[in-house]
Amino acid sequence: MEQARTALAERIAEQRTGGGDPRALVGEMRRSVLLVPLANGGLWSAHSGGVRWVCAFTDETALAQFALHHGPADRPLDYAALLGARIVDDIVPGLNEPAGLAVDIATEDGSMFFPPVTGIVPEAAAVDADEAVEGAGRGR
Questions:
Q1: pLDDT tens digits, 102-124
Q2: Which segments of the chain are extended strands (E)?
């Protein structure tokens, strides 16, 4: 029996096909409970492109796909269930380096990256914060 996709997975699918509203996607991510694997006393993350990506999953099926390739073979993969908002508002800024959120990275056609930019992470943690401040108040 196939598991129904979460609301966030549905929004990601819409966005990946060229539809959907990016603001609604970010809002859904913030409201969603995400499953984040635990490793070495912290949250599982990976570095790519100069960014540390906290890896999270929309449901246990997506997490299990990831665990097949990256989890400990001899025991279940431990994880934390966290709101997306907590990850991007509290955890990402605490990493003290450019960091974002990578969702469902083991799902070939269902992954989505939420980069460390204004509107996704707090301004203090956004890599484009200086650009956003410089452009404030200018007409378009």
A1: 999 998 888 999 999 999 999 99
A2: 33-39, 42-43, 45-48, 51-56, 79-83, 99-103, 112-114
